[in-house]
């Protein structure tokens, strides 16, 4: 069963906004919303490895304390560990620590919370570019496709434009649309945010790429969920 990220009303808002924007420009706007852009397995791996290493390092730095703890846990009845046995115990603790952290980080919200913001932004950008290449790049006669991508769990969005648009519109120009989008998404209104962003994108596109006489609708107006 496919999970929907937004309501049918949101779909209607965004689709109508795209149609209205494209009525005044030869640009073609594609809108995509995703629950998440990446699994961040490598981030979980790094956290598990770092914390396991730290746990083993602490035991190695304070062996007397942990050997005393071992004696207290065994009530003084445990045999004295040899150097190899102690090393094996330290490694076993490190492995258990690694597994424990990995299992905890199976909870995706925590995994994302522990991922640096720069990595989140980079992964969302990569996903947006990949989707743009598949669904919008060079799909219009005038290379005037542009993708608006929203990734909900990362709280990130991106705009990727085809060659003709990128040559005339600097990335910073889309800042107004992105600001409007983020403001609405933070209020729990992703559909309204995307619709407003599309409206502002349409204003920019109409300025640089006004609608011509022969301008077929080459890309879908509907909001795409993945």
From TrEMBL:
The chain crosses the membrane at residues 44-66, 86-107. Keywords: Membrane, Transmembrane, Transmembrane helix. The keyword Transmembrane helix applies. PANTHER family: BLL7265 PROTEIN, UPF0603 PROTEIN YGCG. This is Putative membrane protein. The lineage of its organism: Bacteria, Pseudomonadati, Pseudomonadota, Alphaproteobacteria, Sphingomonadales.
């Amino acid at each position: 069963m496919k999970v929907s990220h937004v309501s049918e009303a949101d779909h209607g808002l965004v689709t109508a906004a795209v149609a209205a924007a494209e009525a005044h420009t030869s640009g073609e706007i594609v809108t995509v919303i995703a629950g998440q852009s990446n699994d961040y397995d490598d981030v979980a791996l790094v956290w598990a490895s770092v914390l396991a290493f730290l746990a083993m390092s602490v035991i190695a730095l304070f062996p007397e304390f942990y050997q005393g703890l071992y004696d207290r846990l065994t009530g003084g009845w445990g045999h004295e560990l040899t150097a190899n046995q102690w090393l094996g115990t330290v490694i076993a603790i490190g492995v258990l620590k690694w597994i424990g952290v990995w299992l905890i980080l199976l909870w995706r919200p925590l995994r994302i919370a522990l991922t640096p913001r720069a990595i989140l932004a980079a992964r969302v950008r990569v996903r947006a570019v990949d989707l743009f290449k598949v669904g919008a790049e060079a799909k219009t006669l005038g290379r005037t496709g542009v993708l608006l991508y929203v990734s909900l769990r990362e709280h990130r969005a991106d705009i990727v434009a085809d060659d003709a648009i990128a040559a005339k519109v600097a990335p910073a120009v889309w800042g107004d649309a992105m600001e409007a989008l983020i403001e609405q998404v933070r209020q729990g209104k992703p559909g309204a945010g995307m619709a407003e962003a599309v409206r502002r994108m349409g204003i920019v596109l109409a300025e640089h790429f006004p609608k011509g006489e022969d301008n077929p609708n080459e890309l879908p107006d509907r909001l795409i969920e993945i």
